[in-house]
């Protein structure tokens, strides 16, 4: 899987000796090969490594993170990725691993594009989200076309994406997985059997990708059906690339910053906007119900308030309303959680009525 670069290929290894400290210069690649031979690699279990710009904050999440994107990542050599960069992975994944049609005009599809990691947006129970810029450097050979509906001249040359990278089961903190995965199946029976064997390295690797696959499929279907969710650009192993929800702002010094949309729990909307938010949210929940889904973890923390529109995020734990025996309880919990937030702000809503309406639409 193409990924952001690791540490240099050689490293200084500290070794203790009777005479004090000594340093032995070894090849880091050789060291990794000697310890990983015959094993599932960390990349298989955890997805692509974060680049050298990975500096996770101490807080669990940042509600409105800001990153300086007024930079020139191509000042070293426009023909090769630099530190914290990689070639665009758009062409390295199969068509079924890309977002649904129609492809938005802002998605960069050119072969010459380079992905630059700008920083971390959020840490979560099962995955971390990073801000990534995909851009074509000036003067680069834009050899690919602009997509199915765009000419080369019309194609976008820069966009901001969120790279959501799932951890292995050992490194995750999500402990209610069986409640959500009950009734799910995978395409290959050997993978299904492996997942049931938690002691198997391959089974753990397949289970790690299950969450990424579930979110990507749910985003594809929900976006195509008109639900207010981020556009899913592509999936590559345990990394899901999706639309960045937010704005870019320029300060008095001319510096451009990417500002993520705040979570619903942090906004104080007017009465009119509160009613609009409720209509948008119930529409999104209705779309998911008609697709046979319940979000599974819907709350004001998993809803972004992008100006006057709401965007539902974090869908890896979507529940199949027909196959999952816990689906009714999960859906009712979603309804009560969101209704509590709106009720606390003065809007008269009924969780039980919403629950009954969603069930009627689902079946």
UniProtKB/TrEMBL annotation:
<dbReference type="Pfam" id="PF01163">
    <property type="entry name" value="RIO1"/>
</dbReference>
<dbReference type="InterPro" id="IPR018934">
    <property type="entry name" value="RIO_dom"/>
</dbReference>
<dbReference type="GO" id="GO:0004674">
    <property type="term" value="F:protein serine/threonine kinase activity"/>
</dbReference>
<dbReference type="InterPro" id="IPR051272">
    <property type="entry name" value="RIO-type_Ser/Thr_kinase"/>
</dbReference>
<dbReference type="InterPro" id="IPR011009">
    <property type="entry name" value="Kinase-like_dom_sf"/>
</dbReference>
<keyword id="KW-0808">Transferase</keyword>
<comment type="similarity">
    <text>Belongs to the protein kinase superfamily. RIO-type Ser/Thr kinase family.</text>
</comment>
<protein>
    <recommendedName>
        <fullName>non-specific serine/threonine protein kinase</fullName>
        <ecNumber>2.7.11.1</ecNumber>
    </recommendedName>
</protein>
<keyword id="KW-0067">ATP-binding</keyword>
<feature type="region of interest" description="Disordered">
    <location>
        <begin position="1"/>
        <end position="87"/>
    </location>
</feature>
<keyword id="KW-0547">Nucleotide-binding</keyword>
<feature type="compositionally biased region" description="Basic and acidic residues">
    <location>
        <begin position="68"/>
        <end position="78"/>
    </location>
</feature>
<keyword id="KW-0418">Kinase</keyword>
<keyword id="KW-0479">Metal-binding</keyword>
<dbReference type="GO" id="GO:0005524">
    <property type="term" value="F:ATP binding"/>
</dbReference>
<dbReference type="InterPro" id="IPR000687">
    <property type="entry name" value="RIO_kinase"/>
</dbReference>
<feature type="compositionally biased region" description="Basic and acidic residues">
    <location>
        <begin position="21"/>
        <end position="33"/>
    </location>
</feature>
<dbReference type="GO" id="GO:0046872">
    <property type="term" value="F:metal ion binding"/>
</dbReference>
<keyword id="KW-0723">Serine/threonine-protein kinase</keyword>
<feature type="domain" description="RIO kinase">
    <location>
        <begin position="82"/>
        <end position="360"/>
    </location>
</feature>
<keyword id="KW-0460">Magnesium</keyword>
